[in-house]
Amino acid sequence: MGAGKENKLLAARGAREPGVSGRHGNGRSLPVKLVHASHGKSARAEPVAALFESGRAKLAGRFPELEDELAGLTIAGGYEGPGRSPDRADAMVWALTELMLGPGKLAPSVRSLA
Q1: Is 113 part of a structural domain of the chain?
Q2: How large is the greatest C-alpha to C-alpha distance in the chain, in angstroms?
Q3: Using one digit for the tens of pLDDT, what is the confidence trace for 40-57?
Q4: pTM of this prediction?
Q5: Does 43 share its domain with 99?
Q6: What Å distances lie between residue 90 and 1, 35, 66, 93, 106, CA to CA?
Q7: Cα 73–75–77 angle (5° rounding)?
Q8: Per the structure, how many domains does the chain have?
Q9: 105: which residues sit within 8 A by CB, 6+ positions away?
Q10: For residue 6, is it within any domain?
């Protein structure tokens, strides 16, 4: 793992999105990587779903709202879960794509920012 790649903040960029800062309350800064969706949320989720199906990815704990959103994604590209949009599921898909399918394929870990 190269320096500066272990910690970063992913943020979706869009016309309606406010500015994003990597500055945290503890005074540390993280690099910010802006991501832009070129495919729908369900299409982006397919490679990540394969990671879960093959046992290469697992949720560590219970996340009922996330699980409900993941269950609402349909193969046809739609969403039939709670709320208007699966934002939690989409955030998890972006993170796992960056960690496990993106350049460098970093080993996932859990760290505290405190």
Answers
A1: no
A2: 44
A3: 888 888 888 888 999 988
A4: 0.69
A5: yes
A6: 25, 12, 9, 5, 19
A7: 70
A8: 2
A9: 99
A10: yes
3-state secondary structure 76-95: CCCECCCCCCCHHHHHHHHH
Here the tokens at position 49 are 């779903």
Beta strands (DSSP E) in 13-107 are: 32-35
> Length of the chain, please?
114
- Residue 20 in any domain: the answer is yes
Mean pLDDT in residue range 24-29: 68
Q: What is the spatial distance between Cα 114 and Cα 95, in angstroms, rounded to a whole number?
A: 20
35-65 burial string, b = 16+ CB within 10 Å, else e? eeeeeebbebbeebbebeeeeebeeeeeeee
Query: In this structure, what token pair is assigned to residue 54?
Result: 């093959």
Beta strands in the chain (DSSP E): 9-12, 32-35
* Contact assessment for residue 68 and residue 82, using Cβ atoms and an 8 Å cutoff: yes
Q: What value, to the nearest 5°, has the Cα angle with vertex 86 and ends 4 and 110?
A: 30
